[in-house]
Design brief:
about 550 residues; mainly beta; 3 domains; 7-stranded mixed β-sheet
């Protein structure tokens, strides 16, 4: 009918602005702040890097292939140029299929939101919502006005991405750090989700300390942070805590952090000078900053001091999550604790992996008394890459019962809750079940201390943990990855002692790290050697 066609006319729109900027999309960009070989769309690559490329591993970059019309980024190399250079073109690509998407008006599908992790508290709610054969994922309403859903700044980033400088109302959040020398440079921006800790030297003068901006608390909190890049929504930096450090190094936490303490000269001392700042940023799962706090360490500077050392740190935490200490990103760092946990029985989800204390693999901690019964509960974290051994001595008397003694020794060796899994990477998350390696537990029985089995008792005397790891990823920057963990309990048979007799047995605990990485194969094959003896005049008349 005519009225139906007339009603449909206002719905005809021009092609919507692309949600994904293909000129900034690069799936072969795998290394952070480094140039990927033959990745022509890598923004970290310079003209010198492009001149060394042999081909573009990704010649065409597009967004959603189901769209009727979209932009496509085309990359190629001009090998005839001297030096070779990269060629970039942005073209319009039309989908020849008659079944294509003209307008992407489902806003919830335009960004990835982290799924809600099932827990015992929300399991019934999620089961009611998603437990059926089908469930609805439609938004509350469909908006057919494509002009409204594609504003002029549709291509602008509406969230922070990894490594993007945290913007403030005047520039960016500064994290002073040493650049060329050990002196502080205030031009270092804090990158989003990049946890950093720096130390640098600052030149000071006690007579002018009240005029040095870097010694004042205001220098670090006076600029509000933008919730998302290029937005008008501001997040103020609040003072979380203030610690005052004396000249002898003693620190005192102030009861109130609302008071702003500015540097000033008092009795030939510069007091309230900033010695350290610790930023803590809270963000959402969509990359929006919602809270910012700073913890300060203030101190006094004597007139003899010409410079001071300042320390700065920044950390990021997602809202409604508990911060978990990491031991590397992604691979383990030598000297940091091996992360471990266990999965409660009957719990079908891997969200409770990190439920043991400190989320670390631990062994028996040796004490000065070397008494095993007194050492119960004392644990030392297993540090990646460090072979460790500890132990104690057990004094056995005739009055001791076998089963309670065996259980006590097992608790001394393994702890109250020995973990079942170890994180394969230093930054493995609890919900990533494939990133966790089960601990294989073995039991070995040694020879008997007595020659008779009558009245004998089996007691554990040692725990040996072997951690096998390999180098994972690029040969330029390999990452340490744990692939296997074996815990071996060794027991021995002990005869019941006569009344009045006692025996001392050593109990040990050890950790060994084994590198099982395959050696890198050379890019060339060595020429074979021939072991023969030539005649004495073979080179005659030459020497």
């Amino acid at each position: 009918p005519a009225d139906t066609r007339d009603a449909a006319q206002p719905r005809v729109r021009s092609a919507p602005a692309p949600v994904t900027d293909v000129a900034r999309l690069c799936v072969c960009d795998l290394l952070v702040a480094q140039c990927d070989v033959n990745c022509c769309c890598d923004p970290d690559c310079s003209a010198e890097d492009f001149s060394l490329f042999t081909a573009c591993s990704l010649p065409v970059v597009t967004g959603d292939s189901q769209l009727c019309s979209q932009k496509a980024a085309v990359y190629s190399l001009d090998v005839e140029a001297n030096p070779p250079e990269r060629i970039f073109k942005l073209i319009d690509q039309v989908n020849p299929s008659i079944f294509c998407i003209h307008t992407a008006n489902y806003k919830q599908a335009l960004y990835l939101k982290s799924p809600e992790i099932p827990t015992p508290e929300n399991f019934d709610q999620l089961l009611d919502k998603f437990g059926g054969a089908t469930f609805s994922a439609e938004p509350d309403g469909w908006n057919l006005d494509t002009d409204a859903q594609n504003p002029p700044d549709a291509n602008e980033t509406s969230r922070y991405e990894y490594g993007v400088p945290v913007q403030t109302e005047d520039a960016f959040l500064r994290l002073p750090s040493p650049v060329v020398s050990s002196w502080c440079s205030d031009a270092n921006p804090a990158g989003f989700l990049v946890n950093q800790a720096t130390k640098c030297i600052r030149s000071v003068s006690v007579e002018k300390c009240d005029s040095i901006q870097a010694l004042s608390m205001l220098f670090y909190i006076n600029s509000s942070i933008l919730a998302v890049p290029k937005s008008s929504q501001m997040v103020n930096i609040t003072v979380q805590s203030v610690v005052v450090q004396s000249l002898n190094g003693m620190r005192t936490l102030l009861s109130s952090s609302d008071v702003l303490r500015l540097p000033m000269v008092l009795d030939e001392l510069c007091i309230n000078a900033v010695l350290g700042v610790n930023y803590h940023i809270t963000h959402t799962d969509t990359g929006e900053i919602i809270e910012a706090a700073a913890a300060f360490v203030l101190g006094a500077i004597s007139k003899e001091a010409l410079s001071i050392e300042q320390s700065f740190e920044i950390s990021f935490t997602q809202e409604n999550t508990q911060p978990v200490p990491l031991s590397g990103n992604p691979g383990y760092v030598v000297g940091l604790p091996v992360r471990a946990g266990f999965q409660p029985q009957g719990y079908p989800f891997p969200a409770a992996f990190l439920s043991n204390k400190h989320s670390q693999l631990t062994i028996l901690h040796s004490t000065s008394t070397q008494d095993c019964l007194a050492a119960q509960g004392a644990r030392a974290p297993v540090l990646f890459g460090y072979n460790m051994i500890s132990g104690c001595k057990l004094r056995i008397t005739a009055a001791m019962k076998c089963q309670p003694l065996a259980q006590t020794l097992l608790d001394v060796l393994k702890g109250q809750s020995f973990p079942e899994y170890v994180a394969s990477f230093g930054n493995s998350q609890a919900q990533d079940v494939l990133d966790w390696v089960p601990i294989t537990q073995l039991h070995i029985s040694e020879q008997m201390i007595s020659h008779t089995l009558q009245g004998s008792c089996q007691i554990p005397v040692s725990l040996g943990i072997e951690v096998k790891w390999t180098k994972y990823g690029s040969l330029v920057n390999p990452q340490a990855r744990i692939v296997n963990v074996t815990a071996t309990i060794t027991t021995t048979t002990l005869k019941q002692l006569p009344s009045g007799r006692e025996r001392i047995i050593p109990v040990t605990s050890s950790v060994v790290f084994t590198d099982i990485s395959s050696p890198a194969e050379p890019s060339y094959k060595a020429w074979p050697t021939i072991d023969i003896k030539l005649p004495f005049d073979f080179f005659y008349p030459f020497v």
